[in-house]
Amino acid sequence: MAIIYRATLTPNKPTLISAWLDTRPGSGQGPDEVLGTYRFDDPEGEVGVEAFLLRRGGRLLHLPLTYRGAPLDGHDSDLVGTVEHSVLGKRWVYDGTADEVALACFRRALNGEQEQAELEVWEGDRPVERRAQQVVVTRENGTGGDDTGASRGGELLLPHVLDDAPEGRSRLRARWADQQAVVAALV
Predict the structure, then answer these.
(1) Alpha-carbon distance 45 to 141, whole Å?
(2) How far, in Å, CA of 67 to CA of 82, rounded?
């Protein structure tokens, strides 16, 4: 269950993401249009894992992020930025494609061992509503051999730019509105 607090973030997520993408080669240029998000639960309950789908300058981007209560040692170059959360305090936001907690979530999802998180909105210390998913993520068999579950290894493909669908023996397909894209694969 992903807990989402009714809170103010400074800067807000779209502002933080836009500023970071401006520094990333291959991210395109132009205004960002957030298409939707989805989340995974960290089994330890310490790290927030949220992935954004957005359009920027005609490109479809996939941006997994992690939210941490302290800096992640050795990952200065993966820091997207910091935000002040009105409930949780200062949060360090990292590129999830370089954060082992997010990578483990995607691996488990690709191996059929984890589903995307249900969303629960909290006000203070109590839940007040369940929120519908903006993006629904499902696991599917891909190319590259049968996916009998005999092997849990393999290379994780988790691209930021979704110009071409990543291929592998197992894939995650994201669906939102009337659109869809493969966002991850296990080769």
Answers:
(1) 29
(2) 9
121 versus 79: the higher-pLDDT residue is 79
3-state secondary structure 128-178: EEEECCCCEEEEEECCCCCCCCCCCCCCEECCCECCCCCCCCEEEEEEECC
pLDDT single digits (tens) 75-108: 999 999 999 998 888 999 999 999 999 999 999 9
Domain boundaries of the chain, sorted by first residue: 2-134
Residues 183 and 187: their CA atoms lie apart, in Å, by 13
- Token code pair at residue 68: 């941490």
Cα–Cα distance for residue pair 68/168, rounded to 1 Å = 30
Q: Nearest CA to 102 among 134, 59, 64, 140?
A: 64
